[in-house]
Amino acid sequence: MSALDRHGVERRTGVSWRGAVGVWAVVGGIMLAVALAGSLVAPYDPAGLVGKSFLLPGPDHWFGTDSLGRDVLSRVLAGGRTAVLLAVAAIVVAEAVGCVIGLLAGYRGGLVDAVLMRANDVLLAFPALLLVLVLAAGLGPGTVVLVVGVAVVNIPGIARLARAATLGVATTGYVESAVVRGEGTAAILRREILPNIAPTIVADAGVRFAGAFLIIAGLNFLGIGIQPPAPDWATMIAENRSYITLQPWTVIAPTACIALFAISVNIVGEAVARRRSRGRA
Amino acid sequence: MPGAASSHGLIWMILRRIGVALVLALVVSFLVYAATTVLPGDVAAAVLGRNATPEAVAALREQLGLGDPFAQRYLAWLGALVRGDLGTSLAGTRMPVSELIATPVRNTAVLAGATLLLLVPLALFVGILSGVRQGRALDRAAAGVSLTLTAVPEFVVGALLVLALAVYVPVLPAVSLVSGDVNPLSVPEFLVLPVLTLIIAGAAYLIRIVRISTIEAMATDYVEAARLAGVPERRIVTRYAVRNSLAPTIQAISATAQWLLGGIFVVEVLFAYPGVGNALVTAVQVRDVPVIQAIAMLLALAFILINLVADIVTILVDPRLRTAA
Amino acid sequence: MDRSEEFNIRLNRRRLLERGAMAGAGLIVVPSLLAACGGGSATDTGGGATGAASTAANTETTSGTPVSGGIFRAAVSDAGPTETLDPHAIASVVDQYRAFNLYDRLAETQIDGTVKPHLAETIEAADDTSTTWVVKLRSGVTFHDGSPLTANDVLWSFRRIGGDPKAPYFASVDPYIDVAKSSVKDDLTVEFVLKAPYGNFQWFLSQKPLFIVKDGTKDIADPASVVGTGPFKMESFEPGQKTVMTRYDGYFLAPEPYFDAVELIQIAKEQQKAALLAGQIDGTENFDVIAQALELEGNAAAALFRVPGANPPQFNMRMDVAPFDDPKVREAMKLSIDREQMMSLLFQDQATLANDLHGPSFPSYNSGIPQRAYDPEKAKALLKEAGQEGLTVELVTGLYPDAAQAFAQQAKASGITINLKKIPQADVYNTDLYYLKVPFGETYWGNDSFEYIAPMAYFKDAPYNETRWNDPAWEKEFITASAIADDAERNSRYQELQVPLWENGGEIIFNWGDGLFAGSPKIQGVQPRIGFIWNDLRFREMWYQA
Questions:
Q1: What are phi and psi of B172, to 5 degrees?
Q2: For testing contact with chain A, the best of C338, C395, C402 (most A CBs within 10 A)
Q3: What CA–CA distance (Å, rounded) separates B265 from B111?
């Protein structure tokens, strides 16, 4: 899934859609709240066997029950957190590694720079999902594969961005004066360059988060990531899709959650990115 | 002679791209081999499972060459791969991998082909029209819809379509189930939902690129000049706009084709469509290493090849790039 | 080498081979609890079943006098490049559909579960030690080419299976029958010389691959040279798509078969229900989702049939490692699974309760042992006695993730925390990582008899001793019992052996889930019985209501 490149392009090709952004920001806020704190208001234990299997929606179970008699509403409320947090973790790891490489490449150039560009080329020759699948063949399924895989996919892009931003800053007066003052490379990178490139990196991280969430959802759907009994939206779609004719709400509810969350993050992220680029211009 | 120099430069550019692609393929092959054979535990025992006798494990270790040093194993594997020998599946039947994946490869090619065949003209039409009529109702609607849909993963789009067209209005089968050696083209009703899912998930991106390219092309000096010269708008669109947006559009089509290679796994699994994506996910589950390696390499090579072809075509059609060389 | 060791090794080899062949057919490793094998039981064991029809709500209607005619179109889902027509190399389910109808065995399980001679007229021990058996063939049985069945064909068939170590089912015959010493006594009499006494030889001869082919048949996998004695003969064969078999008028059990022809049509499992309702086929395989089968109840366009107890999910505790080396902990675990709730959630109540023992459908089963119930209080008390209050264990699951999740919830009431370690299904039998290694894991045996499973699971050095049952005296007693030719006496000895197993064993077997399959409502003559679907694949017993 090249959601990343797609997002990268989206920022440049943005469509004006001001009124709706506010609405989607609200939706996104609600979905984020559901994902992070939904389990607190869940009426039942998301793993509890609380009824017969395949109950249709009713007063006791608003979205019915799944194949093991678990409350679908409770599972949906609890099913977003892990994927969201894993996406955050993957991006944090990727940003940390990517920024260090990018800073060094931008400031020092040379070998790091060349290796970085080649690594990026290699990565672009490989669909992200395929890469993580191949990793999963080796490491076995689990959340470690998700974080490692998604981080690996993002590192070269982040490094490239950090490198470009660093190049722009490195020749400015205050960096040069720091060099003249005789400060060490690490200090210059940390004190002078990092604060200046941070806004660019943070804005980029937001878009990358949306991409990471989608890849993680895809892998969970394929059964490579989060394992039962942990509730997860994508896993719910996968494990309930053979029962879709018996109890469609087991699929409708998590599908709606992923769709609303992904759309709102994308639209809000785009709006923010556009505002930044307009502000710069 | 500037012409000769230019065509010389052109050939040189193309050769360079081919060289880069070959190096990429080599690096990717190394990564695939390393990632699939550096497993925790013993691959041989993992594959054989309950029926493993010590002799069987030893034989499989032999077949996989697990006793040899890594570099030697990799080179042997690469050599076989270059000769077209994909090895033997480790799953029950022990079939040659090339035989095992032949039908899935064809099925995936049919699915991807059908998708591209419908998606590209559709996206070009809508994209150019939106670009030309920037800001009007069609443009706004297309922009809204595509902005929404790019964000939604394929399996969610597919699940929604299944709900709509197989559960609530049951006009189509919920799963593909093209089985055995049946050509999926002979049972087109099974192709509808997977293709539709891929089109919906993929069209948004392509439409947006085409639209932007069209808008940019319509704002060039050529178009301004043509407008001033009184060339009819329709002609401007076909002569200038379309031609000038060709290069970015080719890149976008290639990106879409590459996206398809990634998105197709999820769609194949969702609809139980017997293609390489499904085969790969199954192989990962049963740890059929030679099959994983073969399919991963195949997809990566297709990925690289698409990129290469798109680059070459872009060089050939874009006069600016040519002179730049 | 003493006898028990020798016996043990023979069984091991045989089991390994059988399991290998069946795993190839996807019959051993079930994809999930509800996605059990297409053919119900993994093996065609016999030995005289009793409680086959043990579940409620059977929709079978068997009425009236059989009438001939019609074509029966059965869906199969695993036809493909691995198909074979060689009845001694069957692996896929579709291979078995064919072999069971093109060929015959010397003995067959009957509808009441007993084993009776089939191509044979009598199967009798020639001596007191059950080492030599004389098989007299029915007269008048003919092959599809019209030639009569003779003792030569029988001996040739057994030598084909058990005379060549490279033959796929070599280990089903070689450890038991000395095919070189066995001989033809006259046109219709074969004398089998065994390598060790074996009391239930009649059941032995009813096993799956022991089909009788024509003496000297060359290229047996060629559709043109399929010559059996079976109720149907080969008409056409398109690998991966369709097999057509037509009625053999000279069948020795006339008026069977009733259908004019049987077609085996490749259709993926998920599509079979739709195909049945659309009238494209007349019979499905077992449904993966019981609830989806139950949706057909009351549907005039389909009849629902069942294979009772085809799916027994099973958890195993290793008796040689903590905390399961304490019998009180094992007992507490067995009391912490809610068998009734499992039945409802996993099988929509289309199941019967299991009592931690194998083989309830067979006469060797001890039905006098009380049924274990869900008793978290007693479990808590036992854990307290054992000094294991608030026990935490890890269950490694790959075959039955749903059942494992449910068990983890149910055991909370006993204060037991079951953490799940989900592994790929393919790794469950990985002997390097999990199989026989993990203290608490799972397995699948199918609906097999106690005597069939015991030497493979409860002997000290058995290859599938998943729970580490280790009792030399018990083992010796089992071997002594197996040589007894008298069914009643042998079975009563087997039943006694199950008591310590129930009290002390490490197996948690909680449900016998039924396999449900569907067909045209016109179909008559289908009975609920263990084995494969469609009366253990006996299409010859079925007919269409006029």
A1: -130, 155
A2: C402
A3: 11
Q: What is the pLDDT of residues A62-116, one digit of tens each?
A: 999 999 999 999 999 999 999 999 999 999 999 999 988 888 888 877 777 777 7
- The pLDDT profile of chain B, 325 residues, written as one tens digit per residue, is 444 456 677 888 889 889 988 988 898 899 888 888 765 445 555 555 444 456 666 666 666 666 777 888 889 889 998 898 888 877 645 678 888 888 889 889 999 999 999 998 898 888 888 888 877 787 888 777 777 777 788 888 888 888 888 777 766 666 555 444 556 666 677 788 889 889 988 888 788 888 888 888 787 787 788 888 888 878 877 777 777 777 777 888 888 888 888 788 888 888 878 889 888 887 876 677 888 899 999 988 988 898 889 888 888 876 555 544 3
Count of Cβ atoms closer than 10 Å to residue B42 Cβ = 18
Question: For chain A, how long is the longest CA-to-CA vector?
Answer: 75
Q: Do B181 and C270 touch (CB under 8 A)?
A: no
B24, B38, B266 ranked by CB distance to A125: nearest: B24
Interface probe, candidates B20, B260, B265, chain A, greatest A C-beta count within 10 A: B265
B→C interface, C-beta within 8 Å = 41-42, 45-46, 48-53, 92-93, 95, 99, 173-175, 177, 179-182, 272, 285-287
Q: B173 contacts in C (CB within 8 Å)?
A: 271, 274
In the 8-state DSSP scheme, what is residue C136?
Answer: E
pLDDT cut 70: percent of chain A above it: 90
Number of neighbours of residue C222 by Cβ within 10 angstroms: 13
Measure the CA–CA gap between B143 and B131, rounded to whole angstroms. Answer: 10
pLDDT at A147: 92
**How many residue pairs bridge chain B and chain C with CB atoms within 8 Å of each other?**
84
Dihedral sign, Cα of residue C275, residue C280, residue C282, residue C284: negative
Q: Is the pTM of this model over 0.80?
A: no
Is A237 within 8 Å of B285 when comparing Cβ atoms?
no
Q: Considering just the CA atoms, what is the radius of gyration of chain B in Å?
A: 24
Q: Do B95 and C429 touch (CB under 8 A)?
A: no
What is the C-alpha to C-alpha distance for residues C87 and C91, in angstroms, rounded to an integer?
9
Task: Measure C360 CA to nearest chain A CA, in Å.
Answer: 26
Asked if B153's CB is within 8 angstroms of A217's CB, the reply is yes
| Closest chain C C-alpha to B269 CA, distance in angstroms | 14
How many CA atoms within 13 Å lie on the side-chain side of C427?
Answer: 23
Cβ of A60 under 8 Å from any chain B Cβ? no
Instruction: Give the separation between CA C457 and CA C477, rounded to whole angstroms.
Output: 15
User: Hey, where are the domains in chain B?
Assistant: 100-324
Q: Which residues of A touch B212 (CB under 8 A)?
A: 12-13
Residue B174 confidence (pLDDT): 60
Q: Which pLDDT score is estimated for C146?
A: 94
Residue B40: closest CA among chain C residues belongs to which residue? Answer: C433
Which residue of chain A comes nearest to B301, CA vs CA?
Answer: A125
> What ranges do the domains of chain A cover?
3-280
Specify the CATH superfamily of domain A3-280: MetI-like (1.10.3720.10)
* Angstrom distances, CA of residue C197 to CA of C7, C132, C200: 10, 8, 9
**CATH fold for the domain made of B100-324:** MetI-like fold (1.10.3720)
Task: Check if the beta carbon of residue A50 is closer than 8 Å to that of residue A38.
Answer: no
C267-288 as b/e, with b when 16 or more CB fall inside 10 Å? Answer: bbbbbbbbbbeeeebbbbbbbb
Contact list in A for residue C422 (CB cut-off 8 A) is: 141, 227-228
C278 lies within 8 A of chain B by CB: no
Question: What residues of chain A lie within 8 A of the CB of C341, using their CB?
Answer: 49
Dihedral of alpha carbons C456, C460, C464, C465, sign: positive
